Amino acid sequence: MNITASNIALYAFEHFGDTVLRAAFSRTGNMAEAEDITQDVFLKLHEHPVSFRNDEHIKAWLLRSAINRCINYHKSIRVKGHIDIADMSEERFAIPFTESESELLSEVRELPGKYSSVIYLYYYEGYSIREIAEILEKNENTVSSLLRRARKMMKTKLEREDNYDEQGFQKRA
Predict the structure, then answer these.
(1) CB-CB neighbours of 110 under 10 Å
(2) How many helices (H) and strands (E) does the chain have?
(3) Structural domain range at position 136
(4) Residue 38 CB: number of other CB atoms within 10 A?
(5) Which of 20, 104, 106, 122 shows the greatest Cβ crowding within 10 Å of its Cβ?
(6) What is the mean pLDDT of each run of 10 residues along the chain (173 residues)?
(7) How far apart are CA 51 and CA 6, in angstroms?
């Protein structure tokens, strides 16, 4: 790649800024926090430039950095004292997903973090199991198991929800 160290953060932001923001939002469910995490990721890259092999390497590094920051966010005191996004006006937050993607993504976000990360990277970002293993620094078999369990959790959850109407009453067969 012919990108200088001083330009790598700008190049990465122009090409992968939306991807990092979507990943951060998918993990936090809070647009303001997702924007802060995205800014932190690119600021770190700007302050400490890294040499990359290609665009996929840049994207993987950015997503790994964003996921790590999201994990730290969930451990922080800020999470415990946050205002629920449902209490805020919808106009304040522009969600970067379609309505159907947002509904499914909210279900994915309710999974434990190790499962939601794998589902997000596989289905929303289109990474293979091998690529996810590299990004998350896990064994391919571990990622495959996590993905299988996450799918099973989602299937069970969605089937359960399909058996109830809007008022919470069980549908008749």
Answers:
(1) 13
(2) 8, 0
(3) 97-164
(4) 25
(5) 20
(6) 75 94 88 92 90 91 92 65 43 49 75 86 86 89 93 84 57 56
(7) 11
